[in-house]
Amino acid sequence: QVQLVESGGGLVQAGGSLRLSCAAYTPIFNINYMAWYRQAPGKQRELVAHVSSGGVTHYADSVKGRFTISGDNAESTVYLQMNSLKPEDTAVYYCNIKAQMALDYWGQGTQVTVST
Questions:
Q1: Measured between alpha carbons, how far is 15 from 19 in angstroms, rounded to an integer?
Q2: 3-state secondary structure string, 41-77?
Q3: What tens digit of pLDDT does each residue of 26-69 get?
Q4: What is the pLDDT at residue 98?
Q5: Which residues have a Cβ under 8 Å from the Cβ of 113 and sit 6 or more positions away?
Q6: b vs e for 32-64, b when ≥16 Cβ sit within 10 Å of the residue's Cβ?
Q7: How far apart are CA 72 and CA 57, in angstroms?
Q8: Rounded to whole angstroms, how far apart are CA atoms 70 and 79?
Q9: Strand 103-106 to strand 91-99: parallel, antiparallel, or no bridges (unpaired)?
Q10: Going by C-beta distance under 8 Å and a sequence separation of 6 or more, which residues neighbour residue 19?
Q11: DSSP SS3 for 103
């Protein structure tokens, strides 16, 4: 069972930055898609950003221009650089990696809290 481990979450003031990292304990082959999702209290989990194996990125409107996703398929790692953070970015952030054969891996989540 492949395990994804996230790090980089924490408490930051509004306007600050954090960089989330997600790495697999064992290599994942034939990655199609890497993504970050988030879930705020009382809300559904939502897609924040994703990057395809070809490097094409997509961002939720709420984070465009502030967040940057990057991935390293060879290292089975994905990052999320978050700048100009807002209190509404407060949530548990989850990484997700999808590979061929419908393999779908999730991290355990890392808390991001943005104070006013």
A1: 14
A2: CCCCCEEEEEEECCCCEEECCCCCCCEEEEEECCCCE
A3: 999 999 999 999 999 999 999 999 999 999 999 999 999 999 99
A4: 96
A5: 10, 11, 12, 90
A6: ebbbbbbeeeeeeeeebbbbeeeeeeebeeebe
A7: 13
A8: 5
A9: antiparallel
A10: 8, 79, 80, 81, 82
A11: strand
- Asked if 69 and 80 touch (Cβ cutoff 8 Å), the reply is yes
Instruction: Give residue for tokens 């970050």.
Output: 36
In the structure encoding, which two tokens stand for residue 110, read together? 């890392």
Q: Residue 41 has which token pair?
A: 């209290």
- pLDDT, tens only, 77-113: 999 999 999 999 999 999 999 999 889 999 999 999 9
